[in-house]
Amino acid sequence: MPVEGGSSSGSASAVRHPKQKRKAHSLSIRRTNSTEERPGGIQRGDMLDGQDSKLPLALRNNLLDLFGQIEREFENLYTENLELRREIESLNERLTGDGQTVEGGDPTKGALKTKASHSTSQLSQKLKTTYKASTSKIVSSFKATAGSRALCQLLKEYVGHRDGIWDLSVTRTQPVVLGTASADHSALLWSIETGKCLLRYAGHAGSVNSIKFHPTEQMALTASGDQTAHIWRYMVQLPAPQPPPDVSAPCDDDQDSSDREEGEVDGEGPCEVPTVRVATGTLKSHQGVVIAADWLVGGRQVVTASWDRAANLYEVETSELVHTLTGHDQELTHCCTHPTQRLVVTSSRDTTFRLWDFRDPSIHSVNVFQGHTDTVTSAVFTAGDNVVSGSDDRTVKVWDLKNMRSPIATIRTDSAVNRISVSANQKIIALPHDNRQVRLFDMSGVRLARLPRSNRMGHRRMVCCTAWNEENQSCNLFTCGFDRQAIGWNINIPALLLEK
Question: Less Cβ around it within 10 Å: N or C end of the chain?
Answer without folding.
Answer: N
